[in-house]
Amino acid sequence: MLTKINYEVKGQLAKLLATEDLIIENRKVETAMFDVERRVLTLPMWEKASASVYDLLVGHEVGHALYTPADNWKKDHPDLPMSYVNILEDVRIEKLMKRKYAGIVKTFFNGYKELSSQDFFELEENDVEEMGLPDRLNLNAKIGNFVDVPFSDGENYFINKANKTETFQEVLDLSIELFDYMKEQIKDSMASNGGELDQDWKIGNDFSMGESVQGTPSQTTESDQELPFNEESENGQDQGEGTPDFGSDFNMEDMESASDPTGGEHGSLETITDKTLSDNLENLNNKDRPSSRDPEYCTIPELKLDNLHIKVDDIHRVLDDWYIEQQRRYDKEVQENTYKPARNVYQEADNEYRLFRRSAQKEVNYLVKEFECRKSADAYARATVSKTGVLDCTKLHSYKYNEDLFKKITTLPDGKNHGLIFVLDWSGSMSTVLMDTIKQLFNLVWFCKKVQIPFQVFAFTNEWNRYSKYDPNNIHIGHYSLPFEHHPTKDAQLIVENQFSMLEFLSSDVKKKDLEHHMMNIWRTASVMDSRGRWDNNYFYQPPHGLNLSGTPLNEALVSLNQLIPQFKKKTGVQKIQCITLTDGEAHPISYSKQFTDRDGQTYMGSRSTMHSSVFIRDNNGKTHSCGNNYHELTSALIQQLRGKFTDVNFIGIRVLNKSESSSFIRRYCDWDQDKVANLQNQWRKTKSVMIEDGGGYHAYFALSSSALNSDDSFEVKEDATKSQIKAAFKKSLSAKKMNKKVLGQFMEYIA
Question: Which of 85, 264, 670, 720 has the fewest Cβ atoms within 10 Å of its own Cβ atom?
């Protein structure tokens, strides 16, 4: 019974053998291949192959990765058959692999033994003795332990020399020598047949799968084969009229016309064993599975950040202009309709912000305390104690029984400076929890300011680039516009739609006064998009059109972090970054570009969905991540790609859940581990929060209850409240505080 091949494991094995971070691709190809220039190892998806055969091919192709140069030898030797070089190079690289890895000898032995026993070279139908010398050299090198391959004394010259090759140049020289020898053999065969090619040569060299080939053994004598080749005829004269010239001006076209008078496609110098093996290896692919398709390896595009990264000053200039204009319109309406009270339409939202800021100080101080404590504990855990060489006078009295009389010094390692990047979900589904999420975000922003940690707050959206921002009077009016292009389209590259933007809401770069103003702007904007809306005396105020809630381009945001993280690191000089996403659900899918060919043979660029198990994301280091068949799997793959690229960044997810989502969320991101699921569900019932390590691709994935976030943790009761009402209110406030402290404490473990 065949064991299912773990392609990821085999790819890692190949990298280890090659001592190089090769690019590994698993595709529905006939056999393994290695591109020496691009450093791409293509491994076949053989669903019917055994582990022995698969390991054989991996080891063989790694040999090419290690030892075969990327030189274009065809340029200098255009007529030299590729198969000759391949056969002799295979001998060399397998010898070197066995020399480098003693354990691989058994791997090669078992793999070729299986191929031989299953007649992958079709030797039951074809006589080995009738094959040309290159094919017999190939068989001897690969399955010579299991099949008797005959050679003359003259042909043994090539076996011995092939086994002694150490460099690719030696292989190339021997291939030329073998080619010349084969041409002389053909000349001799044609001369003995009056200028016509001996049928034996057609048997050995004009073979294709599916044909019934018959013939008689070669009549070439042993004396004819003792020397590698003869430069001229026995009497020193040129061959007769019926024999073509195979001198220095030989080319394959001459060979086709002279050696294949039937007008066949293949010349008589063509080998058959390599093609036979490839054809039979192809049968290991499961072609009967209808849903099967060749894997696609998608790359991360290089984005034009100027088009999608909207700077903090630009955003708040739009907000300021918009709210000034709305206030002007409100004041005008008040003048025309005297029944309306004259008041600031944002007064209620602004007052709420000030109240929240005051009430949040206890929570912010708690964060600061936790951060400092954990940072100090970590530093002392890594501290080293060493002797100074200076006598400690307080210990001199104990010199008779104590040898440790020297002062000691404790060295604390330098702590890394931190930075935080926040990625906020600005989608329509966030409307029910947007204000509560903003509160959590603001707490963290104030924490960063207090401990002097650089930060950036981004919101991802599809709305900003849909609209022009200003009219001639510099007032944002929201006319629909054509979005900017984010990147050129390339085959097998992820597509970031042009409407996508990363809005830099807040930044540590601005002055304290400006930051306060910016936070109030964001508070105003979020408060009006609360699911309840905000009515003020029958007047409903709105945010600018480009700042309305949109879809959920979280995946596009993750793609953009490939460039935003280095940009932030370069600007701030931080060593350790925490990248935090705040969202309430899964992202919408993204596509990748795909080059197609129409019926007329014309190519065009289209697109395909990434939501397929055969689609992989490949980073710059060649590591691949499966996109899977579900929304969350694609997002996980993108986060894993970021983690592989930025090893000094912690990726943390904060997910707001309603009551009906908690169970499915826990099961999904615990990989359906029943024990783990049960423990986390119990924790959720108690605290309305959980933290899953390595969940969803994140280092840590926090889940918070939307109902708990909505609850007020202040202890307030009516004057005439009963004892039971007071008890319930007190319990409710403690529960909310308990949840916040637990989550914030776990959160600080990653920050510190």
Answer: 720
Buried b (16+ CB within 10 A) or exposed e, 143-156: bbeeeebeeeebbe
**Tokens coding 339:** 């029944």
Helix (H, G, I), strand (E, B) or coil at 375: helix
Token pair 């480098």: residue: 100
Higher local confidence (pLDDT), 23 or 301: 301
With helix as H, strand as E and coil as C, how does 663-722 read?
Answer: HHHHHHHCCCCHHHHHHHHHHHHHHCEEEEECHHHCCEEEEEEHHHHHCCCCCCCCCCCC
Tokens of 66: 């290690």
Helix-helix angle 361-381:723-751, to 10 degrees: 40
- Pair (151, 3) in one structural domain: no
Q: Are 316 and 575 in contact (CB under 8 A)?
A: no
User: Do 105 and 18 have their domain in common?
Assistant: no
Q: Does 238 have pLDDT greater than 70? A: no
Q: Which two tokens stand for residue 500?
A: 């996508």
Residue 383 maps to a domain:
no
User: Do 122 and 280 form a contact (C-beta atoms < 8 A)?
Assistant: yes
Q: If you ran DSSP here, which 8-state letter would residue 206 be given?
A: S
* Residue 184 to residue 244: CA distance in whole angstroms: 11
CA-based R_g, the chain, Å: 37
> Residue 229's closest CA among 164, 133, 136, 130?
133
Q: Distance between the two ends of the chain, CA-based, in angstroms?
A: 51
Measured CA distances, 348 to 337, 343, 435, 540 (Å): 21, 10, 14, 13
> Position 518: which residue type?
H
Provide the H-helix boundaries in 219-346.
252-259, 273-282, 305-308, 312-336
Residue 45: closest CA among 100, 83, 74, 8: 8
> Total domain count for the chain?
3
- What would the pLDDT profile of 299-315 be if each residue is shown by its tens digit? 999 999 998 999 999 99
CA 417 to chain centroid, in Å, comes to 28
Are 161 and 175 in contact by the 8 Å Cβ rule? The answer is no
Half-sphere exposure of 293 (CA within 13 A, CB side): 9
Longest Cα–Cα distance in the chain:
130
Q: Do the beta carbons of residue 266 and residue 205 sit within 8 Å?
A: yes
> Cα(417)–Cα(31) distance, rounded to whole angstroms?
50
Within this chain, do residues 638 and 742 fall inside the same structural domain, yes or no? Answer: yes
Inter-residue contact 268 to 205 (CB < 8 Å): yes
Whole-angstrom distance, CA of residue 531 vs CA of residue 550: 14
- C-alpha neighbours within 13 Å on the C-beta side of residue 151: 22
Assigned domain for 393 exists: no
Q: If you search the block for the tokens 């097998």, which residue do you land on?
A: 492
The partner residues of 309 in beta bridges, in order of sequence, read 502
243 shares its domain with 334? no
- CB count in 10 Å sphere of residue 371: 21
Contact 661, 432 (CB under 8 A): no
User: What pLDDT, in 10s, does the model give residues 163-218?
Assistant: 999 999 999 999 999 999 998 888 877 777 665 554 444 333 332 222 332 333 33
Contact 44, 29 (CB under 8 A): yes
Task: Tell me the residue type at 696.
Answer: G
